[in-house]
Design brief:
The complex is a heterodimer of chains A (529) and B (125). Chain A has 17 helices and 25 strands. Chain A is of the alpha/beta class and 529 residues long. Chain B has one domain: Orthogonal Bundle (Cytochrome Bc1 Complex, Chain D, domain 2), CATH 1.10.760. With 125 residues, chain B is mainly alpha-helical. The chains are: A alpha/beta (529), B mainly alpha (125). Chain A: It catalyses: L-tryptophan + O2 = indole-3-acetamide + CO2 + H2O.
């Protein structure tokens, strides 16, 4: 068992690697399309100068609206915020025990989680380069803790590989690096790269490959101290008489390539998955609470906007109190509208044809999350998985383990499903009870403990969320080219902000940076006016 | 293939940008009848009874909806999307788009005449 089994021709092998590298290269390129740069947040805006007592009506009390409310009020603007929900935060939201949520269609769920357990139906992680959100968390007293994105001891799972048995992430990553390292080293030694790599550089490359791939002295990736130092041992090192470790067998290259499990590794090399990633202690709803402490007094909740009308003097918004049914109006010199586009597209408003077209040009993605509570943290106790994510080709797509309160003896909550696409629609079209049942069925294939330990579950399907009608704005290169600037530019006295008005599709950082960009332009106009 | 198909071809990357994972949902629905497509996809928003729903905004009812009278219109909406509605036709074959449109136009109290054909869907894309 010293050599990987390679029962295929060189051509087969190279073709497979080409496919692998091509796919992951394409994936990386596609991923970077919407995520090219770090946040351009350079600190809170400096809105200096005479604002002439101007007033701004903000529609929506999500992070975009509340960022704008905070900074505009600091600069002396008169600010009022209208919010559809009975709470602030929008998609920045946590569901915990006792919370009730009614989705479109009328299904009501009451979350039954034990105290301290929760899921974040919307955003759940804060990459280190989301400078704006991190700034406001620090400023507003929102405590952050590490979010485990990559857990080398979590699983990667393909129902069509390894007989459907989940594999440890560390095995797949170490073996993928190791085999690729060995193959590339063979190419160097065979002179196959002589056209592009000089002899001297080839020597450097070989040393680099040995280091990167955990190759042995013969430039092989084989069972032994080097490979087990990466992937782990069959019997781990101990102390005393039973101390001797037993190395583990790497997976052969053909099985590894054909398993497709290397896909998960490429996904975790993405810029927005790089450490450090944070989560608010107690759930993403703490971000909403932080903003609420600062600007909550400016927010009128339970207010459903029905019309937005502007003229040369100002903007008047009609809204209905969703509790009393009373129809009311609010006016201001300017309006900053953060209402999600599928909702805004249905609100009567007098804006330019260009803005109107832009509002209608952005479909909203589907996405479903299902939280499952279990009697104990079997993933920690039985499988030594502390936080992080398991990836699967089953429709639930992933299982995320809590990045907090490790070792807790009480009930624990998993994110049992986070998926979009066709499976996302199908789950959305199901009842909450059906969603939980399906997710239990899928997850049991990875964690057989599911059925015996299950207590309760809760789901949020974003196309059924009454205040957004979808998860986040889904731009394409073509729609951005045609509509993005029109969506963001001043239209009379109306400006839009939110993740949909950013290059951060689906991230809170997009809401924050778009709000700052918008109010900075608004302020410049007021000062100049 | 027009805008709509381009839009969806990139959807996994965008989902990845937000959700962050390579396997963020299958791109194609797979084998399904018109009825199954309705119950698995359309009903996500328009509800299983095709009566729609209302929150901050609304999902229109497909039951008794006069806009379905000409089959080409719902076929176009399925392929291209409309307002916040994604171009879900990108997950479907031409025949599947025709099947689901014809299913909706002949159920939920709808009795619209004239079936949409796959070739007509192809022409819309």
């Amino acid at each position: 068992m010293n050599e990987p089994v390679m029962p295929m021709t060189k051509r087969d092998l190279l073709s497979m690697i080409g496919t692998a590298a091509g796919a992951s290269a394409m994936y990386m390129a596609m991923s970077s399309m919407d995520q090219a740069k770090a946040s351009d947040f350079k600190g809170p805006p400096k809105l200096e100068g005479d604002n002439k007592g101007a007033s701004v009506l903000i529609l929506g009390a999500g992070v975009a609206g509340m960022t704008a409310a905070l900074e505009l009020s600091r600069a002396g603007y008169k600010v009022q915020v209208l919010e559809y929900n009975d709470r602030v935060g929008g998609r920045s939201w946590t569901l915990q025990g006792g919370d009730t949520y009614t989705e479109l269609g009328g299904a009501t769920q009451t979350c039954q989680f034990a105290p301290g357990n929760y899921i974040n139906p919307g955003p759940w992680r804060i990459p280190w380069h989301h400078h704006g959100l991190i700034h406001y968390c620090h400023e507003l007293g929102v405590a952050l803790e590490p979010f485990m994105q990559v857990n080398y001891n979590a699983y990667v799972h393909n129902t069509q590989a390894f007989g459907g048995k989940p594999q440890r992430y560390r095995h797949i990553q170490a073996d993928f690096y190791g085999h690729v390292g060995e193959l590339l080293a063979k190419s160097v030694n065979a002179g196959a790269l002589a056209q592009t790599v000089s002899k001297e550089d080839g020597e450097i490359l070989l040393e680099a490959l040995r280091s990167w791939g955990a190759l042995d002295r013969n430039m092989r990736y084989v069972k032994g101290a080097a490979s087990s130092g990466r992937r782990g041992y069959d019997k781990e090192p101990g102390g005393g008489l039973s101390a001797v470790p037993e190395p583990s067998d790497p997976i052969d290259v053909q099985t590894l390539l054909r398993s497709g499990l290397w896909r998960s590794i490429g996904g975790n090399l993405q810029w927005d998955h790089l450490s450090t990633i944070f989560q608010p202690v107690g759930g993403m709803g703490q971000v909403a609470k932080g903003f609420e402490r600062a600007v909550g007094h400016m927010v009128r909740k339970n207010s459903k906007v029905t019309a937005i009308q502007q003229d040369e003097k100002g903007v008047t918004v009609s809204y209905k109190d969703t509790k009393s049914g009373a129809v009311m109006k609010a006016s201001a010199d300017y309006c900053l509208c953060t209402i999600p586009l599928p909702v805004l597209a249905q609100i009567e408003m007098n804006v330019s044809p260009e803005l109107d077209a832009a509002i209608r040009a952005v479909p909203y993605s589907t996405s479903v999350k299902v939280g499952l509570e279990f009697k104990r943290r079997f993933w920690e106790q039985d499988d030594q998985i502390y936080g992080g994510i398991t990836y699967t080709d089953l429709p639930n797509s992933q299982i995320s383990y809590p990045s907090t309160r490790y070792g807790d003896k009480g009930p624990g909550v998993l994110l049992g499903c986070y998926v979009g696409g066709a499976a996302g629609y199908e789950l959305t079209a199901s009842t909450p009870a059906q969603r939980v049942e399906k997710v239990l069925e899928w997850g049991s294939q990875i964690h057989p403990q599911y059925r015996g330990e299950f207590m309760n579950g809760v789901s949020v399907a974003w196309h059924r969320v009454p205040f957004t009608l979808g998860c986040f704005g889904s731009w394409t290169e073509a729609s951005r080219a045609e509509h993005y600037k029109n969506l963001c530019k001043f239209d009379g006295r109306i400006l839009l902000a939110g993740e949909h008005a950013s290059y951060y599709g689906g991230w809170q950082e997009g809401g924050i940076t778009s709000a700052i960009d918008a109010i900075t332009r608004l302020h410049q106009r007021v000062i100049a006016g | 293939m027009g805008l709509a198909s381009n839009a969806y071809a990139q959807a996994p990357a965008r989902a990845a940008a937000s959700a962050g994972d390579a396997a963020f949902g299958a791109r194609m629905l797979g084998e399904a009848s018109g009825e199954q497509i309705f119950t698995r996809v359309c009903a996500a928003c328009h509800m299983q009874d095709a009566k729609g729903a209302e929150g901050a905004g609304r999902y229109p009812a497909l039951a008794g909806n006069a806009k379905l009278a000409i089959g080409a219109y719902p076929a176009m909406v399925v392929v291209k999307g409309l307002n916040g509605m994604p171009p879900i036709g990108a997950m479907l074959t031409d025949q599947q788009v025709a099947d689901v449109v014809n299913y909706v136009r002949s159920h939920f109290g709808n009795k619209f005449k004239g079936a949409v054909k796959a070739e007509e869907v192809k022409a819309i894309r």
